[in-house]
């Protein structure tokens, strides 16, 4: 398993290419991601979205057309990807597969678990494969995703933080912004973040 990463756009959103058994999976292709992705894939199979915010899905449509790949995204965030509700000018893109909560999907023999952690968005998910989490905008190094956007939920974020606090296994985290970290490192900060989010409710 190989991972390539490149920050994209004004928000420096991490776009990842995960290569497994000769198959390339593109995770969260943000603004202006198309040229970097096309230069770094040999056998593109699918685009996987952790959630629906524009800076993570901006290049979905362009890559779908250019590479002839399917889009997999959390079902509760599809309205963002197909309709641009925040009016950011995001190119709308039809999602081919609506991923259910905590669903394991299999794409050409490769399995991914979409762990559902709503709060930042209704469908916000972590994509898991072989001890690695692509944590999107749920967990960052020493931080968490914002819970004050339209369609965000502080109450859901508290539930998600309590949920992730109970996970005993460790994972390497590749977040949507900033450097990589580990789940065990971030779990130390989660009680603090639970109090922070609760104080805003």
List the main descriptive attributes of the protein structure presented here.
single chain; 201 residues; 7 helices; alpha/beta
- State the end-to-end distance: 41 Å
By DSSP, the count of extended strands is: 14
Q: How many H/I helical runs? A: 7
Query: In CATH, what is the class?
Result: Alpha Beta
Portion of residues in beta strands equals 25-35%
As residue ranges, the low-confidence spans are none
In round numbers, the mean pLDDT is: 97
Order of helices and strands: EEEHEHHEHEEEEEEEHEEHH
Q: Measured on Cα atoms, how large is the radius of gyration?
A: 16 Å
Summarize this entry quickly.
With 201 residues, this protein is an alpha/beta fold. The chain has 7 helices and 14 strands. Strand 5, helix 4 and strand 6 form a beta-alpha-beta unit.
Describe this protein's structure.
- By secondary structure, this protein is an alpha/beta fold.
- The protein has one domain: Metallo-beta-lactamase, Chain A (4-Layer Sandwich).
- The chain is built from 7 helices and 14 strands.
- β1 (2-8) and β2 form a beta hairpin.
- It is globular, with a radius of gyration of 16 Å.
- It starts with a strand and ends with a helix.
């Amino acid at each position: 398993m190989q991972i390539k990463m490149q920050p994209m756009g004004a928000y420096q959103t991490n776009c990842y290419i995960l290569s497994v058994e000769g198959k390339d999976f593109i995770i969260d292709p943000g603004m202006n991601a198309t040229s970097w992705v096309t230069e770094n894939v040999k056998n593109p199979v699918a685009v996987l979205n952790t959630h629906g915010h524009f800076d993570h899905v901006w290049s979905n449509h362009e890559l779908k057309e250019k590479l002839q790949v399917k889009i997999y995204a959390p079902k509760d965030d599809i309205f963002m990807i197909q309709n641009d509700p925040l009016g950011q000018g995001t190119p709308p893109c039809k999602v081919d597969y609506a991923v259910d909560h905590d669903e394991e999907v299999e794409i050409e023999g490769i399995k991914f678990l979409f762990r559902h952690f709503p709060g930042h968005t209704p469908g916000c998910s972590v994509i898991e494969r072989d001890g690695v989490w692509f944590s999107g905008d749920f967990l960052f190094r020493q931080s968490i995703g914002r819970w004050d956007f339209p369609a965000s939920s502080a109450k859901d974020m508290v539930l998600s933080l309590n949920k992730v606090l109970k996970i005993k296994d460790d994972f390497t985290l590749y977040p949507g912004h900033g450097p990589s970290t580990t789940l065990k490192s971030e779990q130390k900060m989660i009680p603090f973040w639970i109090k922070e989010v609760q104080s805003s409710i």
